[in-house]
Amino acid sequence: MKLLLSLDRTLAKFETVLLVVFLGTMVVLAFVQVLLRNVFGTGLIWGDTLVRHMVLWTGFIGGGLAAFEGRHISIDALTKFLSPRMRTAAGIATSLFATVVCYFLTAASWTFLKGEMEAGGDFILGLPGWVAMVIIPFGYALIMIHFALKVIEQAADLLQPKKAEGR
């Protein structure tokens, strides 16, 4: 169990580093584009396209981090009235449902990516178009992994014997 939790935390740290790199790159690239256009009357042909796709990558990686932190969209109005054990059971059910949904989204986006690979086309700087889209199946898989690990973590909490009060 500790190995899985350690893997989850390590993955989240890697995602955080990627987010910092992507956000920093997007800010610098957008600034350079504005500077080149307003001062020199030119720009990077591929700059805007890269920033748009980096937003997509940032969204999926951020979604993985949100799943890790348990900060995905949730409505907790009803769970506030549940006992702690029932709240944990509800958390297991919702995380399991999210895992299944992300599995199907991963499979569908993998089919989409294969279609992009067959279709060809360029992204930027001679890279094939599918390179920019590879984040879609991997992003859903990343979110699915975090939700699945949440299910395991919550199930372990639910199965632990209740500690005696006041000891």
Using brief descriptors, characterize the structure shown.
mainly alpha, about 170 residues
Question: Any overview of this molecule?
Answer:
With 167 residues, the chain is an all-alpha fold. It has one domain. It is 76% helix and 0% strand. The protein is built from 5 helices and no strands. α2 runs parallel beside α5. The chain is elongated, with a radius of gyration of 21 Å. The mean pLDDT is 90.
Low-confidence stretches: none
Please compute the radius of gyration using only Cα atoms.
21 Å
Indicate the proportion of strand residues: under 5%
Instruction: Calculate the terminal CA-CA distance, rounded to whole Å.
Output: 25 Å
Q: Looking at the chains present, what oligomeric state does this protein adopt? A: single chain
Q: What is the element string, with H for helices and E for strands?
A: HHHHH
Task: Provide the fold topology.
Blueprint: H1 2-40, H2 47-69, H3 84-119, H4 130-133, H5 135-159
Helix pairs in contact: 1-2, 2-5, 3-5
Describe this structure in a few short sentences.
This protein has 167 residues and is mostly helical. The chain has helices at 2-40, 47-69, 84-119, 130-133, 135-159. The mean pLDDT is 90.
